[in-house]
Amino acid sequence: MISVNDLRKSFGDIKALDGVSFEAQDGRVTGLLGPNGAGKSTALRILYTVLKPDSGSATIDGIDVVAESLKARSQIGTLPHASGLYPHLTARENIAYYAKLYGMSCNVVDERVQKIIEQLDIRDFADRRTKGFSQGQRTKVALARALVHEPRNIILDEPSNGLDVMATRSLRALIRDLRSAGKCILFSSHVMQEVAQLCDEIVIIAEGRVALHDSAEGIRNRTGCDDLEDAFVKAINLAGTPL
Amino acid sequence: MNPLRTVFVKEVRDNLRDRRTLLSALLMGPLFGPILFAFVINISLKQSLSDDSEPLDVPVIGREHAPNLIEFLKSHNINISEAPADRAAAVKAVKTGEHDLVLVIPETFGAQLADTIPAMVEVISDLANTQAQRQSRRAVRALRSYNQQLAAMRLRARGVSPVVLRPLNIDVVDVSTPSGRSALLLGMLSYFFVFALLTGGMNLAIDSTAGERERGSLEPLLCLPVTRDQLIFGKIFAACLFMAVSLGLSLVAFYVMLKFVPLEKLGMTPNFGPGVVAKAFLLFVPFTLLGASLMTLVASFTKSFKEAQTWLSVVLLAPTLPILIVSILMVRPSTELMLIPSLSQHLLLVGLIKNEPVNMLHVLVSVSGTLIIGGMVTLICARLYRREGLLG
Predict the structure, then answer these.
(1) pLDDT tens digits for A126-140?
(2) What is the pLDDT of residue A243?
């Protein structure tokens, strides 16, 4: 479970986060939705501990991300917005490198890497160097190395960026599998349809604040819009005003 | 496995597969020095050896006016060759580079000589051209000795000993040993070693910040349950390994190269055997930590791989400064100087090449001083790596 409590973060004069609070439950997919620059990435970056909040707190399974950042990191699998691979290493070596850094002992590494390769259907290109991989292949490998330690919490920052239809569909299927395995999944997107199809909960963020937090159905009802896109626009325009 | 070791092993493997790294670490860095050195030595050998042994062709106008002088020149390994028709044509030929020099003996030569009036001889040459300058110097030297011979004969004819014209007998006693003389030339070796060492780890140093950032692999790496210190130390140590390999290769390359360069013809026998190679390696190896951390530090301020390369080429030049200043000032090694990295290695290496006894205190100060400064820069790198702005 991921819980975020009144996070604030500024970069110079720009307030990226202005008191964001929400919770993402286990066994559910929570979507962080918002226009570009709304503060989605900043919130996620604080959760996976590469940024520190100015104030407020966040916990992963009850572990504080600031006070116990190393422990918190081992509880999450992360796919940041930029997820480059090492081009001179094979897909398998890329995944194994992360597995080792997650602290797995050497005899477990090979087995776990093989397992995630099967699970994500990477077999065909697992032993090729990642130089020249397609965006879809790269995202799969990046996901595999984020999931190799079987984390209970998964944070994905715009995972479907640059993916074609087939790759997006298989990503969606994977996220559903992870949900049925009882994982807590938090992902950000600015694509309405994607969020509507996948998410049990939607957190709409605008100008560094949570504008709405509800299910897709609840958002339609509360904004009075049948179309989710209209609801999204309305929610953003009303940002800060409680609905 | 310890995360630091995991990072180290991965960096080594990754870079062994990178053609760019291999080219600079194992080929360009170690071979640039020896090849340049062999090239320079061979040119200077050619110049200094070819001078007197090879006959010099001198076109002479008016050779019929001074048959004795012509005979004298011929006996001094100078060939008399076809000359332009007159003085004006000779000047023109020298200007265009057709001839390097032309000797002009005027009609009046014989008469002036007989009347003991200083007889005019002209050497027309272009002194801006080094080749011509060397040849005309040789011709003038031959003319001077003819001049002295005539003077001695004239004095003797008047009953005066020619020795009266030599009140001083100047003798320069050279106490330099053949290995000492080579130290002058081989002094520039230390820079080649530092250069090879630094190039060896350059790509790794760039990769730990600018490279990872540009590739987009930095952010996921920082999400792992590993401290940033472990990441940066693993990367810096991997760079140290590549630097050490590059240094070793360049030392061996020099050792091999010196076997093919006839330095003894220049009066030098450098003390650069396998023992010195091993000692030099041990002296320079502590510099890898400083080199790797300094390059990582500079690269961490840059936005991209290209920008980092530009700045690091400045770092490549930095270690030359102390060496250059000291070579100009001709400073003798002292304990304080051993605190300056790159300079201390240079001074100790020159001592080894000169076959001087090794001052263990100097070695100790050099090694520990370089390691301490390297350690400090490494800690600064770690500090910068912890900062939030690292992701750019």
Answers:
(1) 999 999 999 989 999
(2) 46
Q: Name the nearest CA neighbour of A195 among A41, A47, A30, A38.
A: A30
Residue B58 token pair: 């001198």
Chain B nearest CA to A192, separation (Å): 26
User: Is B71 an 8 Å CB contact of chain A?
Assistant: no
Contact call for residues B254 and B189 (beta carbons, < 8 A) = yes
Q: Where are the domains of chain A?
A: 1-75+152-243, 84-150
CA dist A208 → B159, B248, B250, B282 (Å): 113, 56, 57, 57
Beta strands at B56-61 and B78-81: parallel, antiparallel or unpaired: parallel
Scanning the structure block, which residue is given the tokens 């011509």?
A: B132
Task: State the average pLDDT over residues B328-332.
Answer: 76
**Biggest distance spanned by C-alpha atoms of chain B:** 103
B339 Cβ partners below 8 Å, 6+ apart? B365, B369
To which CATH superfamily is domain A1-75+152-243 assigned? P-loop containing nucleotide triphosphate hydrolases (3.40.50.300)
B:230-259 residues touching chain A, CB 8 A cutoff: none
Nearest residue on chain A to B8, alpha-carbon basis? A97
Retrieve residue B278's tokens: 């091993």
Q: Which domains are present in chain B?
A: 3-41+178-391 (no CATH), 55-165 (3.40.1710.10)
Residue pointed to by tokens 């605008």? A206
ipTM over 0.85: yes
Q: Burial, A44: exposed, middle or buried (Cβ in 10 Å; 0-12, 13-18, 19+)? A: buried
Buried/exposed code over A110-131 (b: 16+ C-beta within 10 A; e: otherwise): eebbeebbeebebeebbeebbe
How would you list the strands of the sheet with B101-104, edge to edge?
B78-81, B56-61, B101-104, B122-125
Touching check for B217 and chain A: CB below 8 Å? yes
Shortest CB distance from A102 goes to which of B212, B222, B224?
B224
Mean residue pLDDT across chain A:
90
Query: How far off is chain B from A82, nearest CA to CA, in Å?
Result: 5
> How many CB atoms neighbour CB A175 within 10 A?
20
Written as tens digits, the pLDDT of chain A (243 aa) is 999 999 999 998 889 999 999 999 999 999 999 888 888 999 999 999 999 999 999 999 999 999 999 999 999 999 998 889 999 999 999 999 999 999 998 889 999 999 999 999 899 999 999 999 999 899 999 999 999 999 999 999 999 888 888 888 889 999 999 999 999 999 998 888 788 888 999 999 988 899 889 888 888 888 888 777 788 888 888 765 544
Rg, Å, chain A Cα set: 18
Which residues of B fall within a CB distance of 8 Å from A50? 219, 222-223, 388, 391
Could you tell me which chain A residue has the CA closest to the CA of B391? Answer: A50
Across-strand partners of A179? Answer: none
Determine the residue type at A49. Answer: T
